[in-house]
User: Which sequence fits this backbone?
């Protein structure tokens, strides 16, 4: 016959003893108990706040005289992309082992850590994990570029160590882009420190993601190519010092979220044999050039404006164009002029000139495309040579003919009472939207044709 076991604790009752029973209690002289109790923070899900957390606090105070922790960090639940709880019945369970095999541990870890705010649930989708995997790839590709340039410089006698990178010596003599990226890094470290202090690990990770992808990789690495590939090797060495500092600091900030790829890259670059986790956490630079951040933001707007003109005019990707800049502010003009080579590289420009306002007023509006970057900063792109006029006219006429044919088809469909009355409303609305979009495209093509024919 069956006999009930007498030496049993209720599940939640035993759980409430966990913080101190695992450390040697009730032996109050146990070394582990004296050293590790009470601890500082408990991280748990909000769904067991009363079942477990409250009981641990009450039992800790009752049996030891102290609460087991002073802070409770509540994470959300992981739900599917529609916000439903995962269950085998619904068939919406995402197997972490399958995800890790396809996307990698770093990608899954980063997605879970940055996809929510404290206490909020996370709607998990494979698209989010894929975006995180793309960041891993971006880190890896950036490391390959940095390493290849570093090896070339080391063959030329370049020497460096992390101590020399952290001194900040000669910062005021650095070029515009270097002062900007160091200031952005300092601001990022401050933002990380503030976010981690309030336990907002998601915000810290998202800020680091935005900096690494949107500023470091998309902008500074591209500018750095104009230094590292130049004949001025002193300029290349100075650029590499900044590049290494920013890249290694970024790896440290990302390491809590992506431990594997950051450790691998750090080991190859630093070559010290010590783990990245033992390296010093980045510190804000009290002397960072905050003005460079504002000025470089204008520089970025100028690049975007010129790229937009290229796209609107459908200039071939590899074709170089001319550009004239008018910059009223003397300080900004000097900064942009110092990065003329980078601006030409980023926008595929040859013959870049910075002119005075009076000279710009004499330019013909029929011969130049003008765009305003901001108050006091204008860009003028000469139309001459921008595209082959005859080829462009021929292309635009073919495009207009095709649009007119497609537009006529849609107009005929919408003029048919049987279609409008019998087709689902969603289909009719989509057809109307397509017609309106084609009509707008045709208007733009005809306008462009008129300009080219008149020229």
Assistant:
């Amino acid at each position: 016959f069956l006999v009930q076991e007498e030496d049993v604790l209720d599940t939640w009752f035993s759980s409430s003893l966990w913080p101190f029973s695992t450390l040697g209690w009730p032996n109050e002289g146990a070394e582990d108990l004296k050293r590790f109790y009470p601890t500082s923070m408990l991280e748990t899900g909000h769904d067991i706040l009363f079942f477990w957390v409250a009981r641990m606090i009450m039992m800790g105070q009752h049996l030891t005289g102290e609460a087991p922790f002073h802070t409770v960090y509540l994470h959300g639940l992981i739900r599917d992309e529609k916000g439903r709880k995962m269950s085998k019945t619904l068939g919406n369970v995402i197997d972490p082992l399958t995800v890790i095999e396809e996307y990698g541990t770093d990608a899954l870890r980063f997605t879970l850590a940055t996809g929510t705010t404290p206490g909020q649930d996370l709607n998990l989708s494979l698209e989010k994990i894929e975006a995180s995997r793309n960041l891993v790839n971006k880190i890896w590709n950036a490391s390959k570029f940095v390493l290849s340039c570093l090896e070339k410089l080391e063959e030329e006698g370049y020497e460096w160590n992390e101590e020399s990178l952290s001194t900040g010596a000669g910062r005021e003599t650095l070029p515009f882009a270097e002062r900007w990226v160091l200031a952005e890094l300092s601001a990022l470290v401050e933002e990380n420190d503030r976010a981690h202090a309030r336990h907002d690990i998601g915000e810290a990770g998202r800020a680091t993601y935005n900096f690494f992808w949107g500023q470091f990789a998309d902008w500074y690495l591209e500018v750095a190519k104009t230094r590292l590939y130049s004949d001025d090797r002193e300029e290349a060495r100075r650029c590499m010092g900044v590049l290494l500092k920013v890249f290694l600091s970024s790896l440290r900030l990302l390491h809590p979220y992506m431990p594997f790829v950051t450790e691998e890259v750090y080991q190859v670059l630093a070559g010290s044999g010590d783990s990245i986790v033992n390296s010093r956490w980045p510190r804000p630079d009290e002397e960072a050039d905050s003005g460079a951040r504002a000025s470089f933001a204008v520089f970025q707007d100028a690049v975007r404006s010129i790229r937009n003109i290229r796209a609107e005019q459908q200039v071939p990707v590899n074709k170089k164009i001319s550009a004239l800049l008018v910059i009223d502010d003397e300080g900004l003009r000097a900064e942009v002029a110092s990065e003329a080579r980078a601006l030409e590289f980023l926008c595929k420009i040859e013959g870049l000139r910075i002119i005075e306002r009076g000279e710009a007023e004499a330019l013909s509006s029929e011969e130049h495309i003008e765009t305003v970057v901001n108050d006091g900063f204008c860009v003028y792109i000469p139309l001459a040579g921008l595209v082959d006029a005859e080829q462009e006219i021929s292309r635009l006429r073919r495009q207009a003919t095709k649009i007119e044919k497609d537009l006529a088809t849609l107009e005929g469909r919408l003029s048919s009472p049987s279609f409008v009355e019998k087709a689902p409303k969603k289909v009719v609305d989509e057809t109307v939207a397509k017609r309106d979009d084609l009509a707008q495209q045709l208007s733009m093509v005809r306008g462009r044709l008129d300009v080219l024919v008149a020229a």
Q: What stands out?
A: The chain has a mean pLDDT of 90. The chain has 19 helices and eight strands. The first helix runs from residue 11 to 16. The longest strand covers residues 321-327.
